[in-house]
Amino acid sequence: MTQRLLTHLRHVDLAVPDYEAQLDFYRGLWGLVPVAQDPGISFLAAEGSPEHYVVRLRRAEEKRLDLLSFGAATRADVDTLAERLLARSVPLISRPDTLQTPGGGYGFRFFDIDGRTVEVSTQVEARRHRKIEEKESIPVRLSHVVVNSPDIAATRAWYERHLDFALSDAIGSPHTGDVMNFMRISSQHHSLGIAAGPHTSVHHVSFEMRGLDEFMRGTGRLLRAGAHMTWGPGRHLAGDNTFSYFLDPHGNTLEYTTEMETLDEDTWHPHQYTFMDDDVSDQWGTANPMTEVIAKEQHNDVDRGVFVAPPV
C-alpha cells in the first residue's frame, strides 16, 4: 500500500455575498459553533471534532469555494509534498510556512488541475471537543466533500498521482462513463468525491452524525425549520452511508450522513456500480427519486474562484 502524505480532510472554506444569512444558517440551524470571528469572516467547528474548525465563511462579492484543506502528519511530510508538487510543475500559491489562521500550524497552498485552491497543513492545535450525546442532532465532524469536474477522469488521475488518493468505488454506465468517483486517503471509504459536472464547483459538503437516530432527528429538525431538503433520507450503496441533502442559503448542497463504510485497504477492490440500479442511489428506497432538477442543484453555480487564490 502507498505511504500517503495526507491523513484526512480538515475543513472547507466558502465565500458568499450574503454572509449574515449564511452564518445564521450554519451556526443556528446546521449545528456548528463559531470559534473565531473577524469582520466578514467566521470559523466554525463541529462539537465532536478536535479540528480547530471545519467550515470557514467569508464575505465576498461573488460566491466561490475558497479552499479545501487536508491534514498531514508531520512538517517533513508537508515539505516533501511541496517539493514533489514543485518538481511536477504544479502551481504553488505559497511555500510551507507558519499558518496565520485559528489553530496555527504549518502548511502551504496550491491549485489542483481544475483550479481549486488546496491547503495541506500539520501541527494545527487540537480543539477541546466533547462527546456528542444520544439524541443530539448536531454534526460530530466533517465527513467528506464532493466536487464537480468537467473532466472527471483527468481530475481523478491528478489526485491519484499527486496526492496519493485511491479509488474506492465508481458509479456510471456504459453510455456515460463514470459520473462519480469515490476517493480515499485512509480506510474511510471516501474523503473526496469527484462528480462529472458541466463546470468546476462544489457538489456537496457532508457532515457526520452520531448515529442513525441522530441522523434522522437532524433531518427532521431541519425539515421542521423549513430548510429545503433536495434528496433523502436514504442510504447509498457506495460507502454504505446514509444521506439527507439540504441547500444552504446560497445554494450549496450540504449533507447529513452517518455510518460511512471503513475498508480493509489491503484487500479492497473498487466496484463499478451503475446508476441504473435503484439500490445504488438508495438501498432503503425511502428517498425521493433522483431527478434532473436535483442533479442541476448539485451542479451548483460556476465557481468564480478557479485559479484565483483567496485573499485570506
From TrEMBL:
GO terms for biological process: L-methylmalonyl-CoA metabolic process. It comes from the Bacteria. Keywords: Metal-binding. GO terms for molecular function: metal ion binding; methylmalonyl-CoA epimerase activity. Residues 8-123, 141-259 form the VOC domain. InterPro entries: Glyas_Bleomycin-R_OHBP_Dase (IPR029068), Glyas_Fos-R_dOase_dom (IPR004360), MMCE/EMCE_epimerase (IPR051785), VOC_core (IPR037523). The keyword NADP does not apply. This is VOC domain-containing protein. It comes from Streptomyces malaysiensis.
